[in-house]
Amino acid sequence: LAGQILDKWFESEPLKATLATDAVIGAMASPHTPGSGYVLLHHVMGELEGQRGAWGYVAGGMGALSQAIASAAAAWGAHIFAKKAVCHMLLSSSGQAQGVVLQDGTEVRSKLVLSNASPQITFLELTPQEQLPKDFVQQIQQVDTRSPVTKINVAVDRLPSFLAAPNAHDGRPLPHHQCSIHLNCEGTHLLHQAFTEATCGHPSSRPMIELCIPSALDPGLAPPGCHVVSLFTQYTPSVLAGGQPWDEQARNAYADTVFDCVEDYAPGFKASVIGRDILTPPDLERIFGLPGGNIFHGGMSLDQLYFARPAPSYSGYRSPIPGLYLCGSGAHPGGGVMGAAGRNAAQVALEDFRHL
Known about the structure:
15% strand, 11 helices, Amino_oxidase, flavoprotein, five-stranded antiparallel β-sheet, globular, 2 domains, alpha+beta, 32% helix
């Protein structure tokens, strides 16, 4: 339990709760949920430019990272087809992966296929079910993909000014504007309460909020004087109580709750908003192909990690289909912007390629 670990090392409740957010981020869990300690470890075990446990902003936004990877691949001769949705895998008569078929009917043939789509999309939607072992299909179907995340992207016409650290007179970003700001994290009990509400199908009345202002570091993201604010919030259930849909009314009601919370810490925030984009778990699934809206392609609980990710006996990136490999967040070691699953899968695929 993350709560036990934090209680052992720290006394300050706000500090414990702030650190506990890394134990529950993206997870339908509270700091008191068994296994949450690993999620905390997963988020602090890496490093950024030699600094252990550090995080960073990508200049130009997260899309710039994808563009950098694409440019590097193209430099080595890769052909990239954007906006070309894959319809299904192309298999030989012996069941070997031979490429993919696009929705427009185009066949792209290859000796190996690597998928960084989720295990659910890769194996349950794109692969012919008769080619997969029934027990494997069942294991993929049973992966816990519950997500508590609603992401809200906000455009504001001025920098938020927090009661705890008011803005400078010249309006320039201060140090706290250039890092993650955690709200409603005065105590771990608040995180647990927010989690409990969501397990009953109700969006949290006092949600956990991680607020970032990337334009404070990267001014090119917004016009002069304006800013973009990223709100990573929990907890919101994928399915609302009573089977109610996440319609515009429900989306806006939850966003209003989040904005009211931010307003308590930074008066004037709501008046500064000139645009907002609300992405609930169903939206994240529909737009980005995240199963259940889960940013990790599946929960990071101990029963879904290591040798069991995505399923027992299939943690080595190879799949039941010869020549088909899983290289996304649903593979070992799981989610996060680190590229470990892709690198490991590439090494396995190259090893097999040499023996073709």
